[in-house]
Amino acid sequence: MTARHKQKGQALVESAIGLTYVAVPLLLLLPFMAKLTGVQHRVEQASHYTAWERTVWKESAPSRLPNRSDLYLAKKTEIDLAKQIPWRLYQQDGIKLSSTNKQAWDWSKQVHPMLKHQVKQDDAQQVAIKSHSETPQNSNELDRVTQSNRGQKLPGNVGSAVDKAVGLLSYTGFDLETDQFYRTKVNHQMENFYLAPFDKLDLKVQGSSALLASGWNAAGPHHVKNRVERLVLTKTMDMGLIQAAQKALAIIPFGKELSPSKLKFGYVEPNILPQNRLCTYGTANCGG
Fold it and tell me: Polar residues bias: where (predicted)?
């Protein structure tokens, strides 16, 4: 038998093998890769969202915040912030966003179809993001989300110089939050694709972000006054002994201008600022 006769059908066999073990599995894997891209896109959005939200919502009250019953501060814990991620970025289209959700979250029903794929052969599609536990807790927003948010000082020489300058000012009683460089991470573990050899991928999708915020967080005119007064050196003269001396001098005809009601040491009047900067957060027309 000649070599020519031996090679008959070789191309057909190679094509069959290629289609069976290469082309067909890749075509079956394309929907899974599309889901993976969708998860990666949303996890990046989630990291940006958490970084931005932390610059708005505080975990603790800033320094010199007065203790007043009508004063409010935008505060949200790390857990509450993470629970907003599925509602904001993972649920189906066409649903209104709300700060207070009246219904419970459900990973199996409310998640976007893009984030579902077939985990087992001949089975219905399931959430592509893997649960933290063997028995998924679909009513828990954190069941498939791993999120971290860390505030730190500004890196580099400039950040170090700013930190030292604020440290010197702290001797006057004036404090600013210097851990305002926020780094956030959001990650998910993906469910494996049912088709071998892609059933043991154990893929992890992660998104990260960083955002620099301002350390100044003035919560109303009383907070502005308490903070700025620490930078006015003559504020140290605002004491009972000095005021008594002023009252004594005010008795003299030409000493009336020295009275405590007219000569105020360390006096700060925040009302000279624009009115929209002086509202008390939480009240009408000011976040309330």
Answer: 134-151
Amino acid sitting at position 244: A
H helix intervals, 149-239? 156-169, 221-228
d(CA 249, CA 251) in angstroms, rounded, equals 5
The whole-chain average pLDDT of the chain stands at 81
- Smallest CA-to-CA distance from 78 within 213, 216, 186 is with 186
What separation in angstroms does the CA of 80 have from each of 30, 37, 50, 53, 99? 35, 27, 11, 11, 11
29 close to 195: Cβ distance less than 8 angstroms? yes
Q: Residues 9-30: what's their mean pLDDT?
A: 64
Structure tokens, 271: 């009302």
Contact indicator for 70, 288 with CB cutoff of 8 Å: no
Cα separation, 83 vs 172, whole angstroms = 40
Assess contact for 106 and 86: CB atoms under 8 A.
no
* Ordered alpha helix ranges (H), 57-132: 78-85, 107-110
Give the span between the Cα atoms of 79 and 143, in whole angstroms: 12
Instruction: Give tens-digit pLDDT for 34-91.
Output: 888 888 999 999 999 998 888 888 777 777 787 777 666 778 888 888 999 999 999 9
End-to-end Cα separation, the chain, in angstroms:
92
Angle at 94 (CA atoms; ends 92, 98), nearest 5 degrees: 90
